[in-house]
Design goal:
By secondary structure, the chain is α/β, with parallel strands linked by helices. It has one domain (about 50-174): Rossmann fold (3-Layer(aba) Sandwich). It is built from 5 helices and 9 strands, in the order H-E-E-H-H-E-H-E-E-E-E-H-E-E. It has helices spanning about 5-10, 30-35, 35-50, 60-75, 130-140; strands spanning about 15, 25, 55-60, 75-85, 90-95, 100-110, 115-125, 145-155, 170-174. The strands form 2 sheets. A 7-stranded mixed sheet has the order 5-6-4-3-7-8-9, with helices on both faces. A two-stranded antiparallel sheet has the order 1-2. The chain is globular. The structure holds adenosine monophosphate. The site of adenosine monophosphate (AMP) has 17 residues, from strand 2, strand 7 and helix 5.
Length: about 170
């Protein structure tokens, strides 16, 4: 029987040495381009959280695509977490370390109603720094993390260790 993990595996493309030498980029545009596969993945995520979340957060930029589709499927709203300087309103921001250098992401101060339950979505969980920073922003903005869901988890980078106590789910682990 074909599983959702099999489907995801068959629709990811490896791009070696992107964006820097030595990195194998896991490109999910083939999954996005396949309507039935995209629908299956979106419904799989939505089913897991139906009734348990109030808002879906998407992390710039590939997380936006999934988050909007899942939010639509669940009939709830979507909040973007963006790279610094992109959101027009008043923001909360946080910096975190990357392999080389740092990154900064932001969310609108008034993005959530206090106590709302939030699902955080991204395409890939790698070192976990981005997801951990996103969760921190959501909580500083007054909402609760109900779960973190990704299409692919690169387990050798131990991203879950940066998300202690969080409910983390990946459709495919490598
Ligand atoms: P992280 O190291 O978990 O903070 O990942 C940083 C961001 O880069 C996340 O939004 C991931 O989606 C993305 N990312 C990291 N490594 C990869 C990879 N090998 N392929 C595709 N996206 C990646």
């Amino acid at each position: 029987m074909r599983t959702i993990a099999d489907l995801v595996r068959s629709r990811l493309r490896d791009v070696p040495d992107f964006p820097t030498p030595g990195v194998v980029f896991k490109d999910y545009t083939p999954l996005l381009a396949d309507g039935p596969a995209l629908g299956e993945v979106v419904r799989d995520i939505a089913t897991r959280y139906a009734g348990a979340v109030d808002v879906v957060v998407g992390i710039e930029a590939r997380g936006f695509i999934l988050a909007a589709a899942v939010a639509y499927e669940l009939g709830i709203g979507m909040v973007p977490i963006r790279k610094a300087g992109k959101l027009p309103g008043e923001t909360l921001s946080t910096s975190y370390s990357l392999e080389y250098g740092t990154a900064e992401i932001e969310v609108h101060t008034d993005a959530f109603v206090p106590g709302q339950r939030v699902l955080v979505l991204d395409d890939v969980l790698a070192t976990g720094g981005t997801a951990a920073a996103a969760c921190e922003l959501v909580e500083r903005a007054g909402a609760l993390i109900a779960g973190v869901d990704v299409i692919l988890e690169l387990t050798f980078l131990e991203g879950r260790s940066r998300l202690p106590g969080r409910a983390v789910h990946a459709m495919l682990t490598l």
